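[Help] Beginner question about ligand-bound structures

Sorry if this is basic. My supervisor gave me a protein sequence and a SMILES string for 2-acetamido-2-deoxy-beta-D-glucopyranose and asked me to "get the holo structure". I don't really know what that means in practice or what format the answer should be in. Inputs are pasted below exactly as I got them.
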Amino acid sequence: MFVLVWATLLFSARDSIADTGASVEKRTRCQSGFCITLNEGETTAEAGLCVVIPCSFTTSYSFTPQNIVWYKCEQSKPRCVDSDVIFQTNNNRKVQSGFKGRVSLLEPDVSQKNCSIIISDLTESDSGSYQLKVTGVTWYERAEGFTFSPRATVSVTDLIQKPTVMVPPLTEGQQTTLNCTAPGLCSGSDPEITWLWRGPGQNDSHITGNITAFKTENLTAVTQRHSSTLMFNSSAEHHGTNVTCRVRFTNNITTEETVTLNVTLYPKILNSSGCRNQSEVLTCMCIAGQHGPSAVIPWAVAVISLIVNVICIICVMFLWNTRKKVKPNQEDRTYMSLQKTDPSPEYDVIGQPSTECREDGRTII
Ligand SMILES: *[C@@H]1O[C@H](CO)[C@@H](O)[C@H](O)[C@H]1NC(C)=O
Ligand SMILES: *[C@@H]1O[C@H](CO)[C@@H](O)[C@H](O)[C@H]1NC(C)=O
Ligand SMILES: *[C@@H]1O[C@H](CO)[C@@H](O)[C@H](O)[C@H]1NC(C)=O
Ligand SMILES: *[C@@H]1O[C@H](CO)[C@@H](O)[C@H](O)[C@H]1NC(C)=O
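Answer (accepted):
No worries, everyone starts somewhere. Holo just means with the ligand present. The predicted complex, written as structure tokens, is below.
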């Protein structure tokens, strides 16, 4: 357990260092009065998403930049500028078809000398090195071009990021809206977002609900957030089922996230068809509405026990009465015998030991 926690800490620490390191470690290199600032080392990105290559340059005083050209260096070409153009501000025709529409300048104003680009709809074949050339004019109106020798390197890995699914607390019978946001804030093609519902023992099926329009938010000129919402009425049948949001980018690059729905159920009281399901037997008062052989048995038991009780009470009362009749007779007889024997010697025998006792000044004999 501790090992796991430490491993997690170490990995997250390493990741954050890598993240900040990538954006902080810039390096400027100059040649003949032309300088370029690029990130040191490789910039990593995930397939389907996008990558930003941060870049800025300065030129000699007499040079006015007019056009920014980016090349993707091919291994087979000895000079990178012999490779295909992937972006050009002034002339879109020469751009390699595979990159057309995928690359944009973050700062469209070339005079700002900001050569940062964003490449969208990445595939693993976009990994490699990229080189910048700037064309323009000198102060005496001569057209000139300068190629910066430092290269920017990009590494594209498999798509790991998942969509973000937001689930509000679900209550039975109420309208619910789930929200799914695609990973990455890129300006590429709109991804396709689908919702899948997986009930117990069922195959994937498109969810029965109301999928509202797919939404794209323009965050900046070149970054967008894509999301989809799903509206449906929560019911008991949704409880414990899995809902999946699947995002498909260009080139069939897919990522998905699954959430298990937890619907708050309300017990149904006095349902005429009996209990709704087995787990609710305790909260559902089903006796009143039930009919059938199983409902007759408690009634029969109650009636029989009532009859038995009544018979018992009658028996007890009868016995009580008989006993009451006997008792007074016995007492009468005793009383009579006492009266008869009142002056009998038995009375003297009882009185004899108390001859010395006095009562009202008289000696009792
Ligand atoms: C280049 O432009 C982008 C977008 O406007 C900005 O974020 C970035 O900081 C700029 N880079 C430099 C070096 O000015
Ligand atoms: C829902 O997903 C969880 C994990 O993601 C899985 O363990 C469970 O079996 C799934 N349930 C259904 C009904 O598919
Ligand atoms: C689906 O949503 C639309 C617009 O939000 C609404 O007019 C319609 O009644 C909804 N349909 C269902 C079945 O909820
Ligand atoms: C977002 O930007 C694109 C092009 O940049 C534009 O066509 C679209 O209308 C914008 N959408 C919104 C909601 O502003």
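A couple of things worth pointing out: The pocket of 2-acetamido-2-deoxy-beta-D-glucopyranose (ligand 4) is lined by residues 218 (CB under 6 Å). Residues 164-264 form a domain with the Immunoglobulin-like fold (CATH 2.60.40.10). Feel free to follow up in the thread.
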